[in-house]
Amino acid sequence: MVRGRGREHKSQLWEVRFPEEGQRQFVKTLDTLGAIHIWKEDRSNMDIMIDASRAVQVAGILNERDIPYTIAIADLTALLEKEQNITVNISKSKPKNMDWNNYHTLDTIYSFMECLEAEYPYLCSVQVIGRTAEGRDMKMLKISNGVKSNQGVWMDGAIHPREWISPAVVTYLADRIVRTFNEMPESVTNKDWYILPVLNPDGYVYTHTQDRMWRKNRARYKECIGVDLNRNFSYGFGEKGEEGSSDDPGSIFYRGPKAFSEPETAAVKNTVLNAPTKFKAFLSFHSYGEVIIFPWGYTSESCPDYVDLLEGGTAMAKAIYGTSGHTYKVGSTKDLMYYAAGTSIDWSYAVPNIPYSYMIELRSRTHRFLLPKEEIISTATEIQSGVFRLMAFIDQRCTGKESCPCPK
Ligand SMILES: [Zn+2]
Q1: 3-state secondary structure of 406
Q2: What confidence score (pLDDT) does residue 85 get?
Q3: For 322-338, what is each residue's pLDDT tens digit?
Q4: What is the pLDDT of residues 371-385, one digit of tens each?
Q5: Which of 112, 194, 300, 384 has the fewest C-beta atoms lying within 10 Å of its C-beta?
Q6: Distance in angstroms (rounded) separating the CA atoms of residues 301 and 295
Q7: Structural domain spans, the chain
Q8: Spacing, Cα 405 to ligand 1 middle (Å)
Q9: What residues are labeled active site?
Q10: Distance from the CA of 92 to the center of ligand 1, in angstroms?
Q11: What does the alpha-carbon distance between residue 291 and residue 300 come to, in Å, rounded to a whole number?
Q12: How many A from CA of 158 to the centre of ligand 1?
């Protein structure tokens, strides 16, 4: 059973605010104890999921500490039930045909990638870049016309598996680029696209079969399961103590025993560092909140190319707004969210020196993780505009030569 489906497990989503320092850490402790489940952290608030059976108790604890909250989604169970069609009998069903009217399983996403490769062998190749903690293949799609001077773009989804819209958007972009390659602007076709739709396959399968709200991978540490893969990269690993990540295996922000301890993050590192292409952009897709964020996350200081990254992010946000009217905010991780240490984009920016490194939090502000499938295509379309706009921006900025004024 997927947690939260049965009526007996009716759950709610609350928005909690933190008027004082210290209250945030207290609420995080409640999550580690299992009394609540953190969905998202922001600068001054947090979204938490609560089983109805615990609501009175948790309300009492928050009131006692003067932590204000509002009920954002009164019946989460009903929203989870809407998704039921995909989670029932998943193990028995064959991979479905790929489309963007539904969220899909790992098998369907992998067979979609293989079909693209079979149909467009001169543009596409599928590579297994590593194996997960549970032994699953990590499959990456590379799209390239083979021109030597191409620059690289990395795109990944589902590092946090419950963020289902992220692999949907990334596969949509792959499909568009390949099937309409000849109509694409030069700033798109002169790139080598490295696309990893599901960075965390074990976790992704688990969100379809066991717990829709799973965030970590499925590695075992003592009695606990899972590392937050977006805290397991090396740059800034463990900085800011419990504010940036956690050393407690029971926490949903557990960073792992050391940087790159997890096969999934190690595979990303090796693939990026050994690629023949020089990367210009690293785009990691998450949900939710509609924000475009860039380094740093491990410190409140500005990164050296803050203004360039702000401009590139704003170019994306403008294109998104022009397409759908959705307003994506732009800023550094610490500006817009909260400390996050050991993230993939702090690493990609600092270590392989990929200048335009962004984490894009997709829709939605109202449904949170449970974005209705009817919004997949409109989300993917707005992001396509944003990503393509960034490609044009990069080409305008970058001559590709040593003397190029583009950052790094
Ligand atoms: Zn995420």
Answers
A1: coil
A2: 52
A3: 999 999 999 998 888 88
A4: 999 999 999 999 999
A5: 300
A6: 9
A7: 7-82, 106-208+254-397
A8: 32
A9: 361
A10: 29
A11: 18
A12: 7
